[in-house]
Write a structure and sequence with these properties.
- The chain has 953 residues and is an alpha/beta fold.
- The strands form 9 sheets. An 8-stranded mixed sheet has the order 2-1-3-4-8-7-6-5. Strands 9, 11, 14, 15, 16, 19, 20 and 21 form an 8-stranded mixed sheet that branches.
- 45% of the residues are buried.
Length: 953
C-alpha cells in the first residue's frame, strides 16, 4: 500500500510539473498565442533543414514540456521530425501524457504528400496517417456515432455542422467516416482519441485558425489541452485583473453572500454576462459546518443523463454538470477545492488540482427529470479547513455542453476557477461589516504567513491579518537557517512608506542582532505566465525603507540563523511610518534555538548546473560561487576552455597535447581559494560532456579524429594523464571531480559513452551520465552495466513512465549512486513545494544521493525582463545584479529540500519512534498530497523539536 501511494503521488506530480507550453512546427500565422499565459516554442523547420544536435535537443525539450503541439502553415519537415528517433520518443511521451496534436494542412493537395517517416512512426503508435482518399465519398455509416468530445469543437464550423466519431481506429480507409462535416459536405477535421493511452490527434485543413487572430478553434484546442482555466492575458487584460486584484477580498461588488442568512443565485452566461438561455438557480445555506448547496437546472435533453461518465475524478467537465469552487481568502490556509457533479451523480473533487484529494464527508444527490435536473451537495467545511474562515472565495457554475452555454456566478471569459469569476461567502454579518469597514476606513494590515506561500501584489489579507503582529517564534537547530514571512497589506487610498528600525542587540544581551537576523524584501517580478509575484529576495536598501502602494501587498522575508548555544533569543523591532503620523508597529521575533546542529556538509550531492559565466555572471563568478556555498550547492560546473587550450596541431599537422597543463587549473584553484569552500567536500564538472567536448575540439582543429576511434582514445588518454598529473601537483584530489560523459546521450552515442566509462574506471574517476526523455531503458542499462559511477535521469523517468520501476531498479542496482534532475523553466513559480521543496522528500523516498536542478543562473536573455515573449527567458534560480546574484524564494525552497533530505536520513536512522514516524513514507506522502505550506511548517517544527529531544537522550 505504501508503494502504491508513492507511485500514485509521483504519477500525478509528474503531470502537474508540465509547464503551459505549446510547440509550433512551421508557421503559426496570426494565431494570438502570446495573449495567453503560454510558453510558445516555435520551430520553422522545412524539408531542407539540417537537424543539428542542438536543434534536436530543443525540439525534444519543447515536446517534453508541452501539452499542445501545432503543425502549422508551410510545414514540410515531416522527415526531420518523425524520422528522428529522439524526437519521435519525445512525441510518444507527449501523447502518453495526454497531449493534443493539431495538424493544420495548407491545401487539399497537401493531403496526398505523406512522408514515409510519418507512416512508419504513426503505425508504430497506432495513429492512422492522413491520406487524400480518406477524405473522399464520406458518409456517416454504421460506425459513426455522436461523441461528447467532438461536441466541444462545435465552434470550428458552421452552426449546422454534424459531428461524427469512430471510437476505435483501424488502418482501414472505410472507417474514416469520423469527420466533422459542414452541410455542404466539406470535411473540416478528423479526431483520433486515446493514442498511446491518453493522446489526441486532430487533422484539419481549415486555414482560418492561422488567418484569424481570435479563432474559436484555437480556444477549443487550448481548452482541450490545458483545461477550462486557460485565459487570455493581453496587456489590457492584465491591467484590468491588476485593478480588480487590488480590491479582491475587500470591496463588495455585489457578489457577496451572508452564509448565516443564505441566499439564492441566478447563474449568468459567464462569457457575456447576460441572462442564461437555460436557467440555473443555486440555493446556498450553512447549517453548522455543513455548506448545503442545491442546483436547479433547466435541461430539455434527458438523454444526457444516460451518457454521463461514472468514473470518480474523471473528466466530468466534458459532461452536462454543475461545479462548486471554494477557496480560503487567508493566504496559505487550506487550498483551492473544486467539486463537479454530473447527471449520473459522479463526483470529481480536487485540492489545488490534485485529484488524490477525495472528500470523505461530502454527500451528493441528483434528481433527473424530463426537462430539468436537481443536484444537492452537502460539503463539510471543517474537512476543508474552511469552517472558521470569515470569508470564502467561491464560484457556482454549470456546463451546458449540449447548447454550448457555460454559466457562473459572475461574468468571466477566462474560466470558473479564476479570481474574476468568483464571489465571496461571508461567515456572518460581522464578517460582512468588517468587509465594508475595511473598504471604507482603509487599514494597513500585517500577518505572518507560512513559508513558500506564493504571494502576488494583489493577494488579499488573510483572516489573521491585523494592525499589530503577535510575537513570532521560530524553532531551529544550531547552524540551521529558517525564515519568517510577514505580509504587508495596504488597503488605504495612499502609498504607505515604512522604515524598519531594529534593536542593535538581542533583548537582554550583548549579542548583535545582525549575527542572527537578516531582513529582506521579496520584490515584485512579472513571471512568464503574466503574474506579478513577490519572488526575488533583496536586502533592504540603505535607509531600510519598505514601500507598499495603495491596494497592493508586499512581503518581508527575515532569515534566522545562529550557531550560539541553545536557548531563546528575542529581537525587538518596529515598522515606523515615514509619510504620516501613524504609530509605529512593533515586530518581535524570538528564536527558540534547539541543541542539535545542522552540519555545513550535508553529505549529499547538491547541484544547480552552473553557475554559467557567460550570462550575467561574467567577472562576478566568485560571488556566485559564494552564494552556492550558502545554499548547500557543492557541485559546481566549470567551463570547457581548458580542453581547448590543451590540444593543438604541430607544424606537421598532427594533433598533440600540451606538455605543461598547470595553466589550465586557474578555475579550480580560484574556487578552492574561496573561504566558503575551504575544508568542504566539493564537486565540480567540466562542461556538458568529455566525449562531446573532445569531438568538438577535434572538429575545431580541423581533424577527423573522434573519441570512439582508437586514435581518439589514445589522444584522450595522453591528455588525461597530463591533466591528472597537474591536479596532483596542485594538491587537488580527483575524488572531487565529476566527469560528465555526454549531456543527455542518444542511443547512437552509447558505444562511445561505454568506452569513456572504461577509461574512467581505469583511472579511478567519477563518471556521470544524465538521461533525457529520448533515452531508452536499454541505454540506461548499458551505461549502468558499464560501471558508470553516477546516474542522473530526468525525474519523471522514475515517477510516471511505464518503465519507471524498471529504471529505478537499474539506478539502485548494487548500491549505485544516482539522483534526478528537473528544469526550472522560465523561472517557474507554479509550485514552490511540489517542484522545489519536495525534491528532498522524493529523493529520500527514492534513495537518491542528492538533488539537482537546472539551472543556477540565466544562460540567455534578461531574467528580469517582463515581456510576453517567453523565448527571452531561461531556466534560473537566481536573478542577476551588478554585484552578483539575487536569490529567489524558489532557491530558498531548493535549499530546504536539501536539508529535508539530510534530516530525513538522520531521522530514519535514529532509534526514536517520533523521528521515524516523521520520516515515514505515509507521513511524507500525506504532506506532499496536501501541498499545504502551513502543514509543512508544522511538520518541520515537530522535526526540529524531535531532533532536539533525541540529541539530549
Amino acid at each position: 500500500m505504501k508503494k502504491l501511494l508513492i507511485c500514485l503521488f509521483f504519477s500525478l506530480l509528474a503531470l502537474a510539473l508540465s509547464a503551459n507550453t505549446v510547440t509550433v512546427f512551421g508557421v503559426k500565422g496570426t494565431m494570438d498565442l502570446k495573449k495567453y499565459p503560454l510558453d510558445v516554442r516555435e520551430f520553422k523547420i522545412d524539408s531542407k533543414t539540417q537537424m543539428t544536435d542542438e536543434t534536436v535537443l530543443r525540439c525534444c525539450e519543447a515536446l517534453d514540456n508541452s501539452k499542445l503541439v501545432i503543425f502549422g502553415l508551410n510545414f514540410s519537415g515531416w522527415q526531420q521530425i518523425f524520422g528522428n528517433q529522439s524526437i519521435g520518443n519525445s512525441f510518444t511521451e507527449f501523447l502518453r501524457r495526454g497531449g493534443v496534436a493539431y495538424f493544420g494542412f495548407q491545401s487539399y493537395d497537401s493531403l496526398s504528400k505523406v512522408s514515409a517517416a510519418v507512416i512508419k512512426y504513426f503505425h508504430s503508435v497506432k495513429i492512422t496517417p492522413w491520406q487524400r482518399n480518406n477524405y473522399l465519398n464520406f458518409a456517416q455509416g454504421d460506425n459513426g456515432t455522436i461523441c461528447k468530445m467532438t461536441e466541444e469543437y462545435a465552434a470550428f464550423c458552421a452552426p449546422e455542422a454534424k459531428f461524427l466519431h469512430i471510437k476505435r481506429f483501424k488502418n482501414d480507409p472505410r472507417l474514416w467516416k469520423s469527420l466533422v462535416v459542414t452541410a455542404k459536405g466539406t470535411p473540416v477535421a478528423v479526431i483520433q482519441e486515446n493514442i498511446c493511452g491518453k493522446g489526441t490527434v486532430i487533422y484539419s485543413y481549415d486555414l482560418k485558425i492561422f488567418r484569424e487572430t481570435s479563432h474559436p478553434m484555437l480556444e477549443a484546442l487550448l481548452k482541450k489541452a490545458f483545461g477550462e482555466n486557460m485565459k487570455k492575458q493581453s496587456l489590457k487584460e492584465r491591467n484590468r485583473i491588476k485593478q480588480q486584484g487590488k480590491t479582491a477580498g475587500s470591496a463588495n461588488d455585489g457578489t457577496v453572500m451572508d452564509l448565516s442568512q443564505g441566499g439564492t443565485i441566478e447563474l449568468i452566461n459567464s462569457k457575456n454576462g447576460q441572462k442564461a438561455l437555460f436557467p440555473t438557480r443555486v440555493t446556498v445555506k450553512r447549517r453548522g459546518n455543513i455548506l448545503d448547496i442545491t442546483f436547479e437546472s433547466h435541461a430539455p435533453y434527458p438523454s444526457d443523463a444516460a451518457k454521463a461518465l461514472t468514473l470518480r475524478d474523471g473528466e466530468l467537465w466534458k459532461d452536462e454538470c454543475v461545479e462548486v469552487i471554494l477557496e480560503n481568502t487567508i493566504p496559505g490556509k487550506g487550498g483551492n477545492y473544486h467539486f463537479i457533479i454530473n447527471r449520473a451523480n459522479t463526483i470529481y473533487d480536487s485540492c489545488n488540482g490534485n485529484t488524490l484529494f477525495n472528500s470523505k464527508n461530502i454527500v451528493t444527490t441528483v434528481d433527473n427529470k424530463e426537462k430539468s435536473y436537481t443536484v444537492n451537495l452537502k460539503i463539510d467545511l471543517a474537512e476543508l479547513d474552511l469552517a472558521d474562515a470569515p470569508m470564502i472565495r467561491a464560484n457556482f457554475a454549470r456546463e451546458n455542453h449540449a447548447k454550448k452555454e457555460y454559466s457562473g456566478w459572475k461574468k468571466s471569459a477566462s474560466g470558473f476557477n479564476n479570481r474574476e469569476a468568483m464571489g465571496l461567502l461571508a461567515k456572518d454579518a460581522a464578517a460582512l461589516t468588517a468587509l465594508s469597514k475595511v473598504a471604507a476606513d482603509g487599514k494597513f494590515l500585517m500577518e505572518q504567513i507560512p513559508l513558500f506561500t506564493r504571494m502576488e501584489i494583489s493577494t488579499p489579507p488573510g483572516a489573521k491579518a491585523a494592525e499589530k503582529l503577535p510575537e513570532i517564534v521560530v524553532t531551529a537547530g544550531r547552524n540551521d537557517k529558517e525564515s519568517v514571512c510577514i505580509a504587508l497589506y495596504n488597503q488605504t487610498p495612499d502609498t504607505q512608506v515604512f522604515r524598519w528600525e531594529g534593536a542593535d542587540f538581542i533583548d537582554g544581551s550583548n549579542t548583535p542582532a545582525r549575527d542572527i537576523f537578516t531582513v529582506k524584501e521579496a520584490v515584485p517580478w512579472l513571471d512568464r505566465m503574466g503574474r506579478t509575484v513577490l519572488e526575488p529576495l533583496v536586502k533592504l536598501n540603505e535607509a531600510n525603507i519598505i514601500t507598499v502602494p495603495s491596494g497592493e501587498t508586499r512581503l518581508l522575508w527575515i532569515d534566522v540563523k545562529s550557531d550560539l548555544p541553545a536557548g531563546k533569543y528575542t529581537w525587538k523591532s518596529s515598522l515606523v511610518s515615514t509619510v504620516n503620523k501613524d504609530k509605529s508597529r512593533p515586530v518581535v521575533i524570538t528564536l527558540d534555538l534547539q541543541n542539535w546542529r545542522m552540519p555545513d556538509d550535508l553529505g549529499l550531492m547538491v547541484s544547480a548546473y552552473g553557475p554559467y559565466k557567460f550570462s550575467w555572471a561574467k567577472n562576478k563568478i566568485k560571488a556566485y560561487w559564494a552564494l552556492c556555498a550558502d545554499y548547500h550547492i557543492n557541485w559546481i560546473q566549470l567551463n570547457e576552455r581548458p580542453a581547448l587550450r590543451n590540444f593543438k596541431k604541430n607544424a606537421a599537422g598532427v594533433i598533440e597535447t600540451a606538455d605543461n597543463m598547470d595553466s589550465t587549473l586557474s578555475e579550480e584553484l580560484e574556487l578552492l581559494s574561496i573561504k566558503e569552500f575551504k575544508n568542504k567536500k566539493l564537486f565540480w564538472m567540466y562542461g556538458y560532456g568529455s566525449v562531446s567536448q573532445f569531438n568538438k575540439v577535434m572538429k575545431t582543429l580541423g581533424s577527423d579524429v573522434r573519441f570512439g576511434s582508437e586514435e581518439g582514445q589514445k589522444l584522450f588518454r595522453e591528455w588525461l594523464t597530463k591533466y591528472l598529473a597537474a591536479l596532483q601537483k596542485a594538491g587537488i584530489s580527483t575524488e572531487n571531480i565529476i566527469w560528465n560523459i555526454m549531456d543527455e546521450p542518444r542511443s547512437k552515442d552509447i558505444p562511445d559513452c561505454v568506452k569513456f566509462i572504461k577509461i574512467a574506471n581505469e583511472f579511478k574517476l567519477t563518471s556521470y551520465s544524465d538521461f533525457a526523455t529520448w533515452s531508452t531503458v536499454d541505454d540506461v542499462r548499458q551505461i549502468a552495466d558499464a560501471g558508470c559511477s553516477l546516474l542522473a535521469p530526468w525525474e519523471p523517468r522514475l515517477l510516471s513512465r511505464k518503465t519507471a520501476a524498471e529504471e529505478l531498479a537499474i539506478c539502485r542496482k548494487t548500491g549505485r549512486k544516482f539522483l534526478t534532475y528537473l528544469c526550472s523553466n522560465n523561472g517557474n513559480t507554479e509550485a514552490y513545494l511540489a517542484y522545489y521543496r519536495f525534491r528532498g522528500m522524493r529523493g529520500f523516498l527514492m534513495k537518491c544521493c542528492g538533488i539537482s536542478m537546472w539551472a543556477m543562473n540565466s544562460w540567455r536573455g534578461n531574467d528580469w525582463h517582463s515581456d510576453d515573449d517567453k523565448s527571452l527567458g531561461g531556466a534560473f534560480l537566481v536573478h542577476h545584479n551588478k554585484r552578483g546574484p539575487i536569490p529567489t524564494i524558489r532557491l530558498e525552497a531548493y535549499r530546504e529540500a536539501a536539508e529535508d533530505m539530510y534530516l530525513l536520513r538522520r531521522a530514519a536512522a535514529a532509534e526514536d519512534s517520533v523521528l521515524q514516524k516523521l520520516a515515514a513514507p505515509e507521513t511524507l506522502n500525506t504532506l506532499m498530497q496536501k501541498n499545504d505550506p502551513a502543514a509543512l511548517m508544522l511538520w518541520k517544527e515537530k522535526l526540529n523539536r524531535a531532533m532536539n529531544k533525541a540529541q539530549s537522550k
